[in-house]
């Protein structure tokens, strides 16, 4: 990976290097290496150098360039970037005019001094975990090019893991930040639903779409998260809470935090590396207690139903008139989603209300829960089934086993990458109660300090 | 409807042709196999939700607040 975002910012702020020099290094790396991982769908040379020049000018004038001064970053191509057509991984949107302004989250990072260098590949409309995109190509895993980087924010995970940028933005509905983070071996953070504004992104499932950062360190995650906080009336679900900055709390350690491992469902249905990763992480921070997350299989099913119905609803107009322009894998899911009975959707929403209350009860006894992020290491693109815990399971339909039940109710979750000897990266989820992001990141910081990320 | 419910395959075909049409969708022949496969997968993945017995005190529908 590149040096950490915070190390770059410190060097730029101190004058040890300039934002322009850093931007040029990032652009050169992308030019030299992206043909292997295929993370980028657009590289913004002119904008990057212009933004970097602005940062350098602020420093020269003695003004504060922001906590992310000169940090190169890139965004999943469903974020609006001024002057660029927002693709959301599709051909359908390719004829749209360029975005007039940056998405809120992009704007906030740039206001903090970060330098946008490009847009990143993804699954079409964020629907899938493989980033094997029929229009824009497949993003490969930097650890093994025969394998997926995960998805749907596959370009974001791969770009950070390959050292092309130290920081990327993704979106997460059913695991789309968490899965590529685990498969690529980087940190990925999905804050509480509503904590970060989603204005200026192409929605997939509005009732549980989230945005968040991917990076190589927890400190970088926290810095980006802090920079993106703040109310935005343009997102109807954006919270009105005052920002609660996580960075100042990272050094507090684990004192006072009640932690447990998710039992039952979350201890089954995975391969040995995922199980050992969870055990290693729990051991590293002394967690032995277990708690039961109620009805996770029904929670996953509810997430699936809501995803199908809301996702399809947003695409119906184009499905009617130009189905041939969808990625075939995505098109089949959307079309089948149009057939779901209305009662299933209502039932899923009712279940969601029940599940939220049931999890509130769990969080009265614990502050944080550890669970696996993915059931197996990154699969090969050619894998259709894998042998997991004694049975053959379909790859694509199983990747979200551990992520889907949780985002349904918008909990803040950090994926901590775990790299065991002889294995590809996997990851664990650190799950918190709503709006308890700081505690989630404190646990991540403790795990990183213990060297769990390899 | 009763006639189509007699076996799963006919029901799936019915859903594909009739329910999709209610949403203004025509599913071309070349997509039918993939969509049917996905529709059956949807049914399997939704099963744990349909089997879950919601307590009576859960509101009967998402609450709308004017």
Radius of gyration of chain A, taken over Cα atoms and rounded to an integer in Å: 20 Å
Low-confidence stretches of chain A: none
End-to-end distance of chain A? 13 Å
Q: What integer is the average pLDDT of chain B?
A: 85
Total helix count of chain B? 2
Main pleated sheet of chain A: 11 strands, mixed
Range of helix content of chain A? 25-40%
Q: What portion of residues of chain A belong to β-strands? A: 15-25%
Q: Give the assembly state of these chains.
A: heterodimer
Query: What is the SS-derived class of chain A?
Result: alpha+beta
Strand tally of chain B is 0
Strand order of the largest sheet of chain A: 1-3-2-8-10-9-16-17-13-11-12
Describe the structure.
The complex is a heterodimer of chains A (454) and B (66). Chain A has 454 residues and is α+β, with helices and mostly antiparallel strands. Chain A contains 14 helices and 17 strands. In chain A, 38% of the residues lie in helices and 16% in strands. In chain A, a hairpin with a 3-residue loop joins strand 4 and strand 5 (137-138). The radius of gyration of chain A is 20 Å and the shape is globular. Chain A starts with a helix and ends in a 5-residue tail after the last helix. With 66 residues, chain B is an all-alpha fold. Chain B starts with 7 loop residues before the first helix and ends in a 15-residue tail after the last helix. Chains A and B meet through helix 9, helix 10 and helix 11 of A and helix 1 and helix 2 of B.
Q: Can you tag this structure with a few keywords?
A:
heterodimer, A: 454 residues, alpha+beta, eleven-stranded mixed sheet, two-stranded antiparallel sheet, 14 helices, 16% strand, B: 66 residues, mainly alpha
In short:
Chain A has 454 residues and is α+β, with helices and mostly antiparallel strands.
């Amino acid at each position: 990976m590149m040096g950490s975002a915070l190390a770059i910012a410190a060097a730029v702020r101190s004058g040890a290097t300039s934002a322009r020099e850093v931007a040029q290094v990032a652009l050169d790396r992308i030019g030299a290496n992206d043909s292997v991982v295929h993370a980028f769908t657009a590289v913004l040379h002119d904008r990057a150098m212009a933004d970097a020049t602005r940062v350098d000018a602020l420093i020269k004038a003695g003004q504060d360039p922001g906590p992310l001064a000169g940090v190169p970053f890139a965004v999943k191509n469903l974020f609006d970037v001024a002057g660029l057509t927002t693709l959301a991984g599709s051909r359908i949107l390719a004829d749209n005019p360029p975005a007039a302004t940056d998405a809120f989250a992009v704007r906030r990072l740039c206001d903090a001094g970060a330098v946008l260098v490009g847009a990143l590949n993804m699954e079409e409309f964020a629907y899938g975990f493989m980033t094997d995109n029929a229009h824009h190509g497949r993003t490969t895993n930097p650890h093994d090019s025969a394998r997926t980087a995960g998805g749907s924010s596959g370009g974001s995970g791969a770009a950070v893991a390959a050292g092309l940028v130290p920081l990327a933005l993704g979106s997460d509905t059913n695991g789309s930040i968490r899965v590529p983070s685990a498969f690529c071996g980087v940190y990925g953070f999905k804050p509480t639903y509503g904590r970060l504004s989603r204005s200026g992104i192409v929605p997939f499932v509005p009732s549980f779409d989230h945005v968040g950062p991917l990076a190589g360190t927890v400190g970088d995650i926290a810095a980006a998260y802090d920079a993106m906080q703040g109310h935005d009336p343009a997102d109807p679900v954006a919270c009105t809470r005052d920002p609660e900055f996580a960075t100042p709390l990272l050094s507090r350690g684990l004192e006072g935090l009640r932690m447990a491992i998710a039992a039952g469902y979350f201890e089954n249905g995975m391969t040995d590396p995922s199980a050992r990763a969870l055990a290693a992480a729990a051991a590293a921070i002394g967690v032995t207690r277990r708690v039961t997350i109620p009805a996770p299989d029904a929670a996953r099913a509810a997430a699936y139903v809501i995803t199908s119905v809301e996702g399809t609803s947003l695409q119906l107009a184009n499905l009617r008139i130009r189905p041939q322009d969808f990625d075939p894998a995505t098109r089949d899911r959307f079309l089948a989603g149009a057939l779901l009975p209305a009662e299933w959707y209502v039932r899923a929403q009712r279940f969601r209300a029940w599940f939220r209350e049931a999890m509130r009860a769990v969080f009265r006894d614990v502050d944080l829960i550890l669970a696996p992020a993915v059931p197996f290491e990154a699969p090969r693109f050619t894998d259709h089934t894998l042998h997991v815990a004694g049975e053959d399971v379909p790859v694509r339909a199983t990747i979200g086993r551990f992520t889907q039940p949780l985002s349904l109710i918008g909990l803040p979750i950090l994926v901590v990458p775990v790299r065991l000897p002889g294995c590809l990266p996997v990851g664990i989820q650190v799950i918190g109660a709503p709006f308890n992001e700081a505690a989630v990141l404190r646990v991540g910081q403790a795990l990183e300090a213990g060297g769990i990320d390899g | 409807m009763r006639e189509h419910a007699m076996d799963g395959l006919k029901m799936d075909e019915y859903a594909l042709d009739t329910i999709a049409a209610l949403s203004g969708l025509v599913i071309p022949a070349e997509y039918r196999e993939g969509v049917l496969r996905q529709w059956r997968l949807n049914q399997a993945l939704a099963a744990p939700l349909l089997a879950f017995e919601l307590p009576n005190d859960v509101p009967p529908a998402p609450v709308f607040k004017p």
